[in-house]
Amino acid sequence: MDDRAAALILAFAWNLFSSWIGASPGRALVRGVPRWEQDLDWNRTLRGWFTVLFIELTFFSGWLITEVDLPSFFTKFSKASDIVRGLVHPSGVVLHQGLVLLVQTVFLAFMATAFAIPLAFVLSFAAARNLTRSSRFSRVMYTAVRTGMNFTRAVEPLVWALIFISWVGIGPFAGVLALWVHSIAALTKLYSESVESIDPGPMEAITATGAGTFQVLRYGVVPQIIPPYLSFTIYRWDINVRMSTIIGFVGGGGIGYILKPRVDLGEWGQVGTLVLLIAVTVWLMDLVSAKIRERIV
Amino acid sequence: MSGGDVPAVRIEGLGKVFDGRIRALADINLTVREKEFLVVLGLSGSGKSTLLRCINRLVDATEGHVWIFGEEITAATGARLRELRRQVAMIFQQFNVVRRHSALINVLSGTLGRASLLPSLFLKFSQDDRERAVAALERVGLGGREHHRADTLSGGQQQRVAIARALLQEPKLILADEPVASLDPALRHSVMRHIEALNREEGLTVICSLHDVDLVRRYATRVVALRDGRLVWQGAPDELNRYTYREIYGTEAEPATNTVM
Which of A217, A215, A210 is nearest to B81 (CA)? Predict the structure, then answer.
């Protein structure tokens, strides 16, 4: 309640302050909104005042809705010190199991990416605006694929994991499927954007030889998109490694599978070990993926 | 019509409006006889590229009809359209070779209109076509460059690869859209001479847009000029002079200083 009051007082004070430095909404109302509004400072127009008021209201509602609690943030660090101490004093107990599951994590991400490539490759042509202008059928296909992929991407991999765990059972394969579905949608979007940015010239040239649709795609489009496709695919594998470290939280396999119970039990030393393993892996993947993509492009 | 006097291209009432509001061509009527070397003159934006692309349907006209060797291409669809396109090779200002393919594969892609589908998708072509592609590269002065990737070749070399590609297509008509405009002036004749050879030696009809009057005089057998999407002038190359030049390009234009009018 105190915070709420403080927020309202702050808002009121800010409004007072702004009236003091410039104009007021009342004055703007009386004067009417002048034609040359866009040339005036914000504090001289009604629209300016409402815009500022709206931004202020959004910020202060956010403050209340998310229960911002600055006193706790600044005074109660000691409660978390156990965890931090654990994290910086990793325990060797889970090192072996952790390393084994780390390998599983990386391969989980790899398989999800590998399974996603062929589907995303085919779908990306249907989801590229520049290839789907010619007929009504292709325009419908474009809209259908785009909508489907946007929906698929909107559902988080953790939710997909829950679905696939009921489907194929707890374990890394459910994780592979969850990341696979999400990767198809993400790769289709990235791939189709690189199709949209190709030089149309070679397509024209191949069309002019009397070639059919598949030949035009093979000669006029594919050679131009191979480098960005490789680059996006490695980037996706990189992202999938990050995601596969937590997909185990819900039972999707990988290192997250043993991380979650240790968090629940408060085994902070072991959590520290696992987090370190994850950090090193993600850092390495990041490095390797950047290096490879640099080579390709 | 009997076989002998069928024109290579007949265009009637051709018009093109882009996006429902930008008019690129209006009421074009034109007949091109076999074995002509017709040059299309005009400022950039006058509709030269659109006119050429309406002939092989890279652009669909909004009004009018085009016949190629007596067959109406504006009415053709599907396999019939591709069949007609096969007879019309195109050469582009920006060469439009596939940069990541070898010169040889680029030349072989000229055969795609008649190559069998599945092998072509794996870049496989018949031994016969491969030999002809090697010979075509030889002919345009690129013997030994078969396995160079197209993007390692210079502009003039890429354009000659494009000409070799057109050769393999075995066309009856060549459309050349500003074929030398992106090239160093010193290299222009080396490319134009190959196009001329297709016209003189192989008896192919050529429709070529150009803007360098020296080149027009040297290569054209007939000239037409476009201005704001309309045909404004036609005549023989030696009829081009200061007055017709003004007519084509507008009173603001001056012939290039090195051009003797």
Answer: A210
